[in-house]
Amino acid sequence: MPSPEDTPAVPRILARTDQLAATAGEGETGAIWKLQEGHRDLDSNIIALAPEGTIDAHTGPDLDVLIHVLAGSGQLATDLDTLELTPGALVWLPRRSRRQFTAGPDGLRYLTVHQRRQSLVLDAPPPRTTP
């Protein structure tokens, strides 16, 4: 019997963003959908912010992120400018760029896509030897 690693991945519909976007502003916040497939090179999430909600200013990860605004509105503050976010906006966030998200009165929902970060694997320390 083949292991899951040996089974080829096949294209499939994972979610309906129109349905996820339709519930914008209904109280869900944070990552409301995540790409769960085991063997993949990408990560993707749908992030929801409540009306007038924010993600505080921070430096992004050490990888590029692409976001696609699905519903609602808001602003993305960067070091140089403030970008208006409306449905359909496709925004590139360069690696380690500063960003702050603020949702508008109807909340904000956006899809993120980026390279999958490798999991940190910690090895057990070597056994202690006594002299």
UniProtKB/TrEMBL annotation:
Superkingdom of the organism of origin: Bacteria
CDD domains referenced in this protein's UniProt entry, alphabetically: cupin_RmlC-like
InterPro entries membership: RmlC-like_jellyroll (IPR014710), RmlC_Cupin_sf (IPR011051)
Protein name per Swiss-Prot or TrEMBL: Cupin domain-containing protein
Source organism of the structure: Saccharopolyspora karakumensis
